Amino acid sequence: xECSRHELEHYALMVQEATDEHANGIALGAAVRCTYDPMAxxxxxxxEARSVADVHHRVALVVGAIEPALxxxxxxxxxxxxxERREELVPV
Length: 92
Prior knowledge:
Blueprint: H1 5-22, E1 28-36, E2 39-46, H2 52-66
Antiparallel strand pairs: 1-2
């Protein structure tokens, strides 16, 4: 789908609003940005999960929150990377 920069920025706002409203507890620290070559809206966020399968499930929930907010179907590409595990705090 071809669109102008202005339209892309409008879609990015719609994605940010949908993420904030419907995936707030899942997409931690969500940030949305536009890229113009190629034209795309990127959503960057973290999830806390116990397994790789749970990570993918949570990403699917975020995509599911965004889909109804846009007036057209869209393609998704996902990339995940594991953060280093946080050490449990031990009381002194």
